[in-house]
What does this fold into?
Amino acid sequence: MELMAYALGENPMGTCNIKYLNLRKCPINKEGAKFLAPALAFNKSLVHLDLSSCKLGVSGVMRISEAMKENKTMKSMNFYRNILDVDGARAIGKMLEVNKTLEFLDIGHNRIRETGLKAIVDGIEKNAGSKMNQISVCANFINDDGLNMMFDRLVFGKKQ
It folds into this structure.
């Protein structure tokens, strides 16, 4: 992961031109996220990153979310099945308050519950320049009330 991050980030060898990167099921975990996160902050070419089933955990997602506050090119991120839980969802929500390029986010199968979903919806609403138009939240212990809250606020524009 250290070499991958080096290639993706700022380095003396040249600019990275990779647009789509699929790291699905690579055991990156929180240690790999320490290397990957700074590279994502500086990367100017990636538009899609698949980190599904990478065992990032809460701290890994927190690091990547913090870095994504600086990223200006990413349009699509997949965090499916990374055990990010409510605290990881809160970090993603904070990132979505400032990130103006993300259009698609998959946070399915992560145990975010209604509390985590609310944090993500709050982040999207606080960002006047948000381009977010697709979000996948399947298999997250979210009941009808949570889904209704998301639709009311993001689709119908109702404040709660």
Observations:
- The chain has six helices and five strands.
- The first strand starts at residue 20 and ends at 22.
- Residues 2-155 form a domain with the Leucine-rich repeat, LRR (right-handed beta-alpha superhelix) fold (CATH 3.80.10.10).
- The chain has one domain: 2-155.
